[in-house]
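YM 10:42: Methylamine utilization protein MauG sequence, as discussed on the call
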Amino acid sequence: MAMRVRMTWLVLGMGAIWLGACGGSTPDPGSETDIALRGLIQKNGLRGDPAFGRELPSIDEPLAQLGRKLFFSKSLGGDRDSACVTCHHPALGGGDGLPMSIGVGADDPDLLGPGRTHPDGDLPVPRNAPTTFNIALWEKGLFWDSRVENLDDGGTRTPDSDFGTPDPDAGESLSEAQARFPVTSPEEMRGFEFVLDGTNAELRTALEQRLAEDGRWDAEFEATFGSSDIGYARIAEAIAAYEDSQVFTDTPWREYVEGNHDAIEEPAKRGAILFLGTREDGGADCASCHAGDFFTDEDFHSICAPQLGRGKGDGFLGTNDHGRARENDDRNYLFSFRTSSLLNVSATGPYLHAGTYDNLVDVVRHHLDPLGAIDSFDPSTVPLAASEDFERNTQEMLDFLEVSGRGIDSLRAPIELTDQDVEDLVAFLETLTDPCVLDRQCLSPWIADPATDDVDGHLLVAIDRDQNPL
Ligand code: HEC
Ligand code: HEC
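YM 10:58: structure's back
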C-alpha cells in the first residue's frame, strides 16, 4: 500500500506548484501528463474520496451482521429459492454477472453468476442488476430509473406512493426504502404463488410472520434491536446497514487524485485526460454526465442503449423500456436512465440497463458513436426472449431521439478517437476499481458464513458453474 499524503496544490497558468507536507522536500510536479491531468482534476472539482465526510456503518456492527444473514436468506423469497444475494453477490462485483437476472425458478437456485439458467431458457428479469457496492453514496435515487427517490421537499417516494409523493413507510435512507421492494417482485423473489393476490403490504406481513413463526429469528432480532419483534421495517433497516457497509472506494484513481503520481500508469492518465476533457478541449466529454468523485450527476440521459430482452412492457411491441419516462410520465425522458457510477466498473459487467455489452471497450465505443455501435451489434449473440424485437425497439428509440433532439451528443456528432484512445479510456476506467472487490479474502466479511449465519436452514450458500464455492 502506498502511503497517502494529503496535499494542497494550485495550478497557476501552465504549471503546477505543490505546497506540500512531504517532510520539507520540494514536491514533484510530475510529468507533462500529470500537470495537464491535475489541471483537469481541479477544473472538475475532484477531491478523491466520494465518501468524504459521511458516516457509514461498519460490517462489524450487529445491525449489519443481521443484515448479512437476511441478505443471504432464501426465507425472504416466496418459494424460498431466491435471496437478495442471488443477484447481488460480493464476489460477482455486487451484481450477478448476467446481462439480466434470473431470480425465482432457476435450475439450480444456489448457482450464481454465468451458468445460472432458467428452465424456459430465458433471463426473466427485464433489467441488469446494478451493484450494491457504494449504494450508500447515491443522494437522489435508486434503480435505473430512480423510482426510489428523495424528494426536494423531504421524504422518499417509492413504488408504493404516487410520483412526487412521499411513502410514509420508506424509512431513513434510500437503501432502506429500496429494500422493501425486491421481495414484492414475482420474477426476483416472490414467485408466482406466495400471497399471489396480496398487496405489497400483505406480502411483507406474510414474510414477517414466516420469520416469526420459525422461532429461530427471534433471538437475532432481540440481540440487535432489544426486542424480538420482526417487522419488515427492521428487516429493511438491517439489510440497508449491510449494504451501506459495502463502501469500496479505495481506488488507484483516488490515490492519484490525493497526490500520488505513481498510483496509476501513463495510459490511464491519458485516458483520464480524455474522460475529463470537454469536446472543445479534444476530450471525450464523459465527465459531463459521469461527474464528480462518484462519477455520476445522478441525472437522466439517453445514451441510446439498445434494448434487449423482454423489456418493461413499453412501446409498440410491448418489449421496450421507456426508462425514467415510465415514472415521471414526461415524454422528454423517454429512453433515459440514471447515469451509472463508474466506481468498480471493471468488476460489475455486463453493462447498461439491459446488460447489452459484456466488456468496457464496447461500452466506450457505444458512447462515442451510438449509431455505429448499434449498426454493428448482433442481437442474436444474446440468448434472450424478444431479441427478435431488437430492430423495431431500437428504431422506436432512434425515431424519438431524432424528432426530440434529445440523447447523447455523439448520436448526431460521433466523437472520433483512435483505438489507442479507447484503450486509454478503458485503462482509466480500470483504475476506478478498489482492489478489495477483486479479492475473495478481502470481501469475506461481506459473504455469509454457513457456520454462523444460517439461522433457519435457508441460507444461500453460493456456488459457481464449476460447483466451486463463490
Ligand atoms: C432476481 C435478481 C434480483 C434479486 C433477487 C434482488 N435484486 Fe436488487 N436489483 C435487481 C435488478 C435487476 C435491479 C435493477 C432494477 C431496476 O432498476 O429497475 C436491482 C436493483 C437493486 C438496487 C438499486 C441499485 C442502484 O444502483 O440503484 C439495490 C440497492 C438492490 N437491488 C438491492 C436488493 C436487495 C436488498 C434485495 C433483496 C431484498 C435484492 N436487491 C434482490 C435484481 C435483483
Ligand atoms: C449524456 C450523458 C453521458 C455521457 C456524456 C457519458 N455517459 Fe456513460 N452512461 C450514461 C448513462 C445514462 C448510462 C446508463 C445508460 C443505460 O444503461 O441505458 C451510462 C453508462 C456507462 C457505463 C456502463 C456502466 C454500467 O455499470 O453499466 C460506462 C462504462 C460508461 N457509461 C462510461 C462512459 C464513458 C467512458 C464516457 C465518455 C466516452 C461516457 N460514459 C459518457 C451517461 C453518459
